[in-house]
Amino acid sequence: MNDFLRSAKDFADKHDEQVDQGIDKAGDQIDQRTGSKYTEHIDKGEDIAQQRTGAGDTTGS
C-alpha cells in the first residue's frame, strides 16, 4: 500500500494542473448536486485538496 501512495503522490506532483482540474470538476459536481447550498465549504475543500497535491492551486477556483 505504501508504494501505491508514493506512486499517487508522484503522479500528482508531475501532473498538478490536471489533478487541480479534476478537483475543480468534482467540486462543481458536488456543488450542483447540493443545490449550491455549500458552495463556500466546497470551495474551501477544493483549495485544501489542491494545496496538498503537487505545487498547489493552479486553476484559481
TrEMBL record:
Region of interest (Disordered), ranges: 1-61
Pfam families in the cross-refs: MT0933_antitox
InterPro entries for the chain: Antitoxin_Rv0909/MT0933 (IPR028037)
Biased composition, class Basic and acidic residues, residue ranges: 1-31, 38-49
Extent of Polar residues compositional bias: 50-61
Protein name as annotated: Kanamycin biosynthetic protein
Species whose genome carries this gene: Virgisporangium aliadipatigenens
